[in-house]
Amino acid sequence: MRTSVRSVDTTQLLKGVLDLAVLAVLKDEDGYGYDILRRLREAGLTEVGDASVYGTLRRLFAAGLLTTYVVPSESGPHRKYYSLNASGRDQLTRSGKTWRSFATTMDALLDDRGMAA
């Protein structure tokens, strides 16, 4: 019997958690677009796309979770920095709790079936 279900694609998982990942990256330090992308990749999200991160930043800003400011640069274009505001920190806390609960559930499912790493 053939199945039409394919293995989980990392890019599909990223779509569901990219907002949380971006908020987490900005928790302790403000950043500009490329810097945020670099930090996500260094953290292990190597498959995250440039356009996805920039779109996420715009969406989080429009939702009132981030503030921005511009820093002039002598060696190129000015950089728009993003920082978490109080609403963004609240969202990070809520989303983090949701993620931990979900991850715990998935870990238990995999452990119960002998699939844990």
TrEMBL record:
Tree of life domain: Bacteria
Domain annotation Transcription regulator PadR N-terminal: ranges: 22-93
Protein name, per record: Transcriptional regulator, PadR family
One Pfam family this sequence matches: PadR
Taxonomic classification: Bacteria, Bacillati, Actinomycetota, Actinomycetes, Micromonosporales
SUPFAM superfamilies (alphabetical): Winged helix' DNA-binding domain (SSF46785)
